[in-house]
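User: I'm preparing a small set of examples for a lab meeting where we compare how different chains pack in three dimensions. I only have the primary sequence for this one, and I'd like the structure in token form so I can line it up with the others. Please keep the answer compact; I'll paste it straight into my notes.
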Amino acid sequence: MREVRKLVEQVAPSDASVLVIGETGTGKELVARSIHDCSDRASGPFVPVNCGAIPAELLESELFGHEKGAFTGAIATRQGRFELADGGTLFLDEIGDMPLEMQVKLLRVLQERTFERVGSTHTRAANVRVVAATHQDLEQLVAENKFRMDLFYRLDVFPIATPALRDRPEDIALLLTQMTQKLSPADAPQIADDAVVTLQSYPWPGNVRELINLVERLSILHAGAVVTARDLPEKYRGLSDLSSPKADLSARRLPEEGLDLKAYVAELEIQFIEEALARTNGVVAKAAELLSLQRTTLVEKMKKLGIEKR
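Assistant: Understood. Below is the structure token output for the 310-residue chain.
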């Protein structure tokens, strides 16, 4: 993350387009906001747009605005995000989900720095700094003709990759401290060292966003109290305890009422197999390698556990 911060500080003073790449939940918008805050445009607006959350037929109006009567339902003139971001930064999140026809229009704006509202012939200047973000492989989308090559190179002037949380487990302790300090003393849980070690072994498919949600959950369940490894939700303890032969098994205790060992182990197998399949995009052979199994053995386990049906 120090390297990310260094890149932010280097690119912020310029007006170059930036492409922030990373998995969902890695903090791509925080990087975009940092670029804005460190730039000469910091006093201007920061306007985010989620390109994947807006219907294709409304995206043009959302970005460029429209005139009254431009289409059915346009009962008044409306400014678009480019106008709202004038003098500041426009953050285009999930740019990989933008329809091809809109990609052409966005490319024109980036090249000419001008645009027109829908239903207008009046050309307006686009005085904005564009930062885009995606969790997708844009080069692969280009190869599949789902994303324009010229737009990709226009956006990819200065790429910044946000690392997944599983690739930087040493940051978890610092992140937990930062998150709990934002809570009131009465609500903030105190995360014990054994709990931190356990969380460092979890793969974090939801990245930092998932960690934020966990801290919020712990603040409700254990407000102001010490949280040990055994107090963590089951999925965090289960994956940690079995992920390494050297893992600290002291965090796992047999419940007073006992348990169904066969069902318990089966559930852990399901969790690991599904995680391996998710990481390898469903390629069974690669998932088997992650689990140190023969492919045929994994296939049999999947059938036995009903994972194919899941």
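A couple of notes for your slides: Residues 261-279 form the longest helix (19 residues). The chain has 14 helices and eleven strands.

User: Perfect, thanks.
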